[in-house]
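Progress narrative, work stream C.
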Amino acid sequence: MLGLISSRLACECFPVWPPSYPVPPAPSFLGALLTGAAPHRFINNEFVEGVDKKTFEVINPSTEEVICSVHEATEKDVDIAVAAARKAFEGPWKQVTPQQRGVLMFKLADLIEKNVDLLAAVESLDNGKSITLSRGDVGGAAACLRYYGGWADKIEGSTVDIAPDMFHYVRKEAVCQKGSQTTDHGPRC
């Protein structure tokens, strides 16, 4: 659930998302929670349904009532998301400097911190954690973004002395995209 709301915050955060990508209007996740409509996934800079259009119910662990339904991610959805991430990585993101990437990560961390109470409430509702634990999780997400945002312009290459007549250069680059759908079984009341 935190990921769904984070997608909405990302839209607010990234008006300078790679220049060729317009920021789309985001559906209301709170509206989806209140009406039971299925929040969409954010792939290729737009909100989309799952390929198979399957949904699953999110259950409030303390009352066992349905909070809402969300689109189920299948292998096809992950493949589409990875392809879109690869296209962005090889396209517009190459034009974004490491400093700009760090700034974007800090902006997202700022938005998470600005909305800590909302995000913590949704996280508590979703998996039954106390609000205190959820605030810690949300704060941890912002701290993680700040940590990696700080590294964005500090990763550099180095030379490796293997032999006198050889020159080996190591350049570290982010080359991985990951798709996952997880559940967090926090403590129950």
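Work stream C, second folded protein:
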Amino acid sequence: MLIDWFTMIAQLVNFLILAWLLKRFLYRPIVTALDAREKKIAYELHHATVVENEAKQSMSEWKQKNDELEKQRMLIMQQAAKEAEDKRGELLLDARKEYETLRVRLEESLHNEQKNLQQEIIGRINTEVFSIAKKVLEELADVTLEDCMVKVFCERLRKTETADILEMRGLVRQSGHPPIIRSVFRLTPEQCDRLNKTVTDVFSIDANISFETDAELISGLELSMNGHSISWNIKAYLDALQLTAEAALEMDKKETGNVHDKQPPQNLS
């Protein structure tokens, strides 16, 4: 078989020209496009990795900040609860103190009212008793209450102990001050003479006795010699009457309290 070298060479040349044309106008643009796309994909993958890393870092930072905020929230809530509890304790303590103060004031007020009432009752009883006694003595014995009081006081002076008589006599003679007789009522001249004679006889002194009226004395008389005194009044009787009245009021208070204690509690529901 004969080879046509011209045809073969022509085909070879044609092939080389075709290959050069393909490379020049087709293969190179495709390769360039593929390289560009590969670079673009690589860039996008790199960018996606960077974005993912940034997202992970942001997520971590957000979680850390969220944990810190949660810790701060718990701390603030605990602190607020503690402050609220402390404030509640302070308010309760202030309320207890205020209650105790009001209770003490109320008790003092009730005690003062009770004391004033007792004094008023004793004063009224004193006035009524002396008014009745004075009327009875004037109507039955034709004597006044003041005369009876002077008589009793004179008897009280005559019963003075010898040691007291000697001591008071020495005080009067040493000081030179005259004895003083005080009374809640104004003494008549006859009553003054009787008292003057009794003091002179009992204490064996010759001195001008001074007579004074003292409204603070409780229905009685008092002999004073240089700071020492002998007195007679109804204070002891009034004190005993006051103690009896106080005991009666206290018993009534206890009975009232027992009655209230025995009452069944009311249903508050």
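Confidence is low (pLDDT under 50) at residues 264-269. No further action is required on this item.
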